[in-house]
Amino acid sequence: MRCFRLLFILGIFVIGIAVPGFTQGASSAPGTKPGPGFSVDNIDKTVDPCVDFYQYACGNWIKNSEIPADESQWVSFAEVDQRNLDVEHGILEKAAAGGSGRNAVDQKIGDLYGSCMDEKTINSKGISALQPELDRVAAVKDKGGLIDEVAHVHLVGPNPLFNFYSQPDLHNAEQVIAYIDQGGLTLPDRDYYLKDDADKVEKRQLLVDYATQMFTLAGETPQQAAHSAQTVLSIETLLAVYSMDRTKRRDPKNRDHKMSREDAVALAPNFYLSRYFAAAGAPNFTQLNVTNPDYFKQVNGVLESEPLESLKTYVSWHVLNAAAPWLSQPFVEAHFKLQQKLTGQKEIQARWKRCVNLTDHELGEALGQRYVDITFGADGKQRMLKMVDALETSLAEDIHQLSWMSDETKKQAKVKLDAIRNKIGYPDVYRDYSSVQIKSNDLLGNVARANEFESKRLIAKIDKPLDRKEWRMSPPTVNAYYSGSFNEIVFPAGILQPPFFDKSMDDAINFGGIGLVIGHELTHGFDDQGRKFDPQGNLHDWWTEQDGKEFEQRVSCVANEYSNFVAVDDQKLNGRLTLGENTADNGGARIALAALEHMIAEDKTGKEGQKIDGYTPEQRFFLGFGRVWCEKSRPEVSRVRVLTDPHSPGKYRVDGVVQNMPEFQKAWGCKAGQPMVAENACHVW
User: Fold this and answer.
1) pTM for the whole thing?
2) Is there a catalytic annotation at residue 263?
3) Among 94, 348, 376, 616, which residue's beta carbon has the most beta carbons within 10 A?
4) Which of 236, 378, 252 is nearest to 299 (CA)?
5) Cis before residue 535, ω within 30 degrees of 0?
6) Each residue of 445-483: b (16+ CB within 10 Å) or e?
7) Active-site residue among 88, 561, 585, 655?
8) Exactly one of 191, 360, 521, 550 is catalytic; which is it?
């Protein structure tokens, strides 16, 4: 279900496709702050590209860039996102102003944004805006009634205790079924509750201090608030103990536990799941997937042993914490302090930025309609489709040429590749928000009603055929993704912007940017997770046994390589957690470069093969790739990311790839023994 608040913005991206803007890449004057597009001025020519290509490609960008005070890191995605916020800001200011030309869509997004910007009304209400929700929890008389209340809370806001949602059946992707899953933690990962290093101990104390402050603001005495905070930490620690770690969760087989509704109810009777499903308004389904049965078995005991008042305190905490960003200023400031400690962010974002993000989160396809009208011309989708076609052709050739894969598995891989659906720009049919009541002076109510609309929309999908036309991101979203269950790649409208795509630049730069991103997403269909899904999106092993072993041997090389990279302080990357993204980066780079080489070979004018700014097309391809991942991060967020993010830091997304590529070494004249020439190069796709 939907979360009552926007999650901490940690600067973590699925592939990091940021959204819109209109500035084209151009060289900046020496000594000035780099622009968002590609420029040779970003290059540090004092560095040997064969020693540290990332530093060579990004050195001057790093030197001349500063992390804005309201950001935890500064990457090309964030640069583009800032321009995107400006576009959406203009749309929403106009919609909020009203006027005779405002239609129903403008009314929804304008009034939600306006209610968020109305700080005077929000501050005047204080905790009273949330009090009815807190009173509902306080009125609970028994543990069965608490589960009824948890169902209500799930509909309108956060997800205490566990998660309930709908997804395609892992073994019949054409059918949507119900899922229940672990959940209910405040800190970013289970390790924050279970590990005893200084950083985790500090973060647990920060949680206690923050919760104490929040309970005090909500009306408890300091002594009561301190006790409530300790109760929250105690219960969440128990939930963390029984939660599956995120590396293990990467294997879909570990999340595949379909059972009857009756068996799920019997598995954990203290969850009162029959009451929960009824209270949540779920259809009378007969089967569901319990992604982590052990969690429900073990937490069943927690629900039995913990006093009702302690459990009510825990649920109240999640209601309070989720609503905090949209309550009066003291709550907002307290909430930001915890975020600040986790991310290193110096200042809270301007109110208008938070309100733009909220509107996109709650009414994304309504705001997206206006966004697309302004930013995404008819030629945008055609340019993307052309590049996707070129990359798919390149990947097909790569698969065909693999020496380690049998013809039988190659044939099945080609079938899967041909079946991948491409969604570019925006959905064919936008979501209808007409039933969502948005009031100009009721921010918290607006958020709750929008959340409830989305929760019920998703619950209603249970036991119905899969709608493959639906998008899981709004057009302005800063991202792109591949879905194994849908077997599709999705690129929201904002992707065709510098430094990913720049119509003023040569093809080499664009293939190193957007081309590599497309290749990355396509390769996800064949990474350690994606390869386990068939062309229809079913969890099905279509590999021969020997080919599966050959694949695992090759991805183990990648996992071991990245596990030796130091992310921050003395913490090394988790090569297994980041395996899918690293495999996709390596594969995406190879097929994007191959597609560029095809284009150069087919160019009868010879123009595509010429040097620009003294660099060959192949060199510019790698420079374009490097520019996309130029990055500066605060140490606080780097520490969070090394535990939680399946993506490697920018430096290793670049250097980790190029050291495995003979094509890179040929392009730059690198010799054996240099750092960018791996002694035992990894090669999967």
Assistant:
1) 0.92
2) no
3) 376
4) 236
5) no
6) bbbbbbbbbbbeebbebbbeebeeeebebbbbbbbbbbb
7) 585
8) 521
